[in-house]
Amino acid sequence: MIARTLVENAVVKTLCRMCSNRCSIDVHVRDGCMVEITPGQGNPCNNGRMCPRGGAALDMFYHPDRIRTPLKRQADGSFAEISRETAIAEIAEKMMEIKHRYGARSMGVWKGEAVGFLQQEEYARRFAHAFGTPNYFSNDSACYNGRFLGHMLVNGFWNPFSYYAKADLILLFGTNPPVCHPPFMAEFADAKANGANLVVIDPRLNPIACYADIFAQPLPGTDGALAWGLIRHIVKAGEYDHELMDHTSIGFEEVVAYAEKFTPDYVEEQTGIYADVVVKIAQLIIENRPRISFYMGAGLEHHDNGVDNIRALVILSCITGAFDMDCGLFWPEDMPRNGLTLYDEQPLEEEKPIGADRFPVLYELRKECHSMTAMDYMLGNGDYPLKGLIVTAANPAVTNPNTRKVEAALGSLDLLVVNDLFLTKTARLAHYILPAASFLERSEIHIDPKYQRVYLTSKVAEIPGIMDEYTLWHDLARCLGFGERYFPWENETQVNQYILEPSGIRLEQLQAHPEGIQYKPLTFQKHLSRPLPTASGKIELASPYLKKLGFSAIPEYVPPYHLREKSEDYPFILTTGARKTLLYHSRNQNFEHFRKVHPRAKVEIHPDDAAALGISDGNAVRIVSSIGALEVEANIVHKSELLRGVIEMYHGWEDWPINLTTFDSVNDPISGFPLLKGVPVRLEKVELDIKKQAPNDKLQTNHNNKNSKSQTG
Ligand code: SF4
């Protein structure tokens, strides 16, 4: 591969974006080649540490399978190389055809994480609105939006991060920090060294649970019942923040009245956590409040009651007084900056954003369309047809629920453009594939709200013919006739300057400070001097906004789908999505040395469940839900690692997509999130040597059950 570094011999300081943590890294360039990545110093986020995924950025950059030339699907289904100019011109022409025939809203844009975060997201949102469509989708519809809404609906801001080292008690719900947030581990270690207690709540034993003072395994999706039980105990003991509840919140009386039924015994009945353990956790909270950090992870949002479970936990944090403190629920201040979206200039809401009628909160608070409903629109089952889609660095054919429906929907489009680094499963369905730039090929502004710092990431290298994300939208917009108006900047450096202007910080200053610049000093307890960013200006324990929309004002606990819809045919609860250290969603599987560690998909099974079904470690098993099935290898874990009756499988395998079995049409009513961590399934032993089986994504759709029709649209 012909790649060019921008410097011949140097150490280039930038931020890693192999996951969302954005640690500082040093990229070592020797003789025009990037040879090593080591942790960068001076950034409080990672404090001179990094994880193995960060080091693998070079495997990604230099990977021989990188897409380097635009590809066009041929009549026989194969792909042929075409020039970039031709690809952009043909895509623009087809977009205009769709616009003239069906209207601009029949085009959509879908952004994933592999190309970056906020700035890339704003490019995509801007482009969609400039074209005239409100239909912006992203992977956030299946990871992040649920937690964002859970926090926003209570206190009007999103920042689940705290300075954990300052806490006397840390409670982690549904998260696996050593894998998801390695930079937090040093903070946890410092907190433990300072004598802090650690409580880990997770159906699955994750490594940090080994250091916990209390580790409790609730049934998936029942965290809300635990939150309400803790609220009840704390309120009954009178051990809550009276000042905060009396003067800075609304709905406290409703919360107190609703909590009444969540006795320790009832919580045990719902969650499976012993009543005396519930009381012990409540006592720990009382003893340590308000110096408590609560962290709610992705494990909570993948249920059809996810947002309300998260809201209940945010309320619990507020009630204890752990609110806008250094140790808990820090309310970050924004950096003044120019945004790139056009929501004020061109709201386009009269164009009926897809899913906004079903999930109005998702659209109103996140300005995001519902990616699962998008599949129905593609298949002709919406108010209008969705005929074209530009997907940038997302892989919905793997990561969205109900794989077969997603494949059918994407395959039905008149125009599918995929911009990516590799030939993913989604890319293989495209009409045009464009080569995307990795983070090492881009420069962008990054804002870290936890430390209120701003960074400029450095472009380290480039590969001829591969364009960065801004250039993609810029060139396409020029071809479509709105480039000069909406994408006037010639390159990403000019965009970076524009974004920074109101901050008073100059690009050169950021270049001189790769460890970032703090844009505002950290201050706490700001609610004492200004209203919160909610409609009432207060903590909304009961939400007038949700009530107006017909939801319960307080986050009432509804048992999760698998408890409400118990079925003898599907006696197991499938949870998906537990992270792996080396993989990141559907990424990194093609790195040779990572593949040695994770050569194939496995499903984790409790030893007693395995014994009852005659399954041994390494056997082939079939996971069957009401919509599909998948055969994989059994991994019998230690009995402490999983609850009986619960199985777990990683969600991002290209060759073994567990989303063949997950539902797209059982959704959280507020966020629209799919059911990814509470799917009723059965497990069958299969007589075959799974290790000799070629990777497959066999679907065995069960058409003889009541759910098939609704699941397949
Ligand atoms: S945690 Fe690892 S992959 Fe994520 S940003 Fe930090 S070094 Fe990169």
Sum this structure up briefly.
This protein is an alpha/beta fold. It contains 26 helices and 29 strands. It starts with a strand and ends with a helix.
Question: Would you kindly provide a written description of the structure presented here, covering whatever features stand out?
Answer:
The protein is of the alpha/beta class and 713 residues long. The protein is built from 26 helices and 29 strands. Strand 7 (107-111), helix 4 (118-131) and strand 8 form a beta-alpha-beta unit. The longest helix is centred in the first third of the chain and has 19 residues, at 84-102. The chain is globular. The model is unreliable at 696-713 (pLDDT under 50). The structure holds iron/sulfur cluster. Residues 16, 18-19, 21-23, 46, 50-51, 53-54, 182 line the site of iron/sulfur cluster.
Q: What is the helix content?
A: 25-40%
Low-confidence stretches: 696-713
| Small-molecule binders | iron/sulfur cluster
The biggest beta sheet is recorded as:
7 strands, mixed
Please compute the radius of gyration using only Cα atoms: 25 Å
Write out the strand line-up for the largest beta sheet, numbering strands in chain order.
Answer: 6-5-16-15-14-7-8
Overall mean pLDDT stands at 94
Approximately how much beta-strand content do the residues carry? 15-25%
Query: What structural class do the secondary elements suggest?
Result: alpha/beta
Q: Count of DSSP E strands?
A: 29
Span of the ends, CA to CA: 44 Å
User: What is the overall silhouette?
Assistant: globular
Helix count equals 26
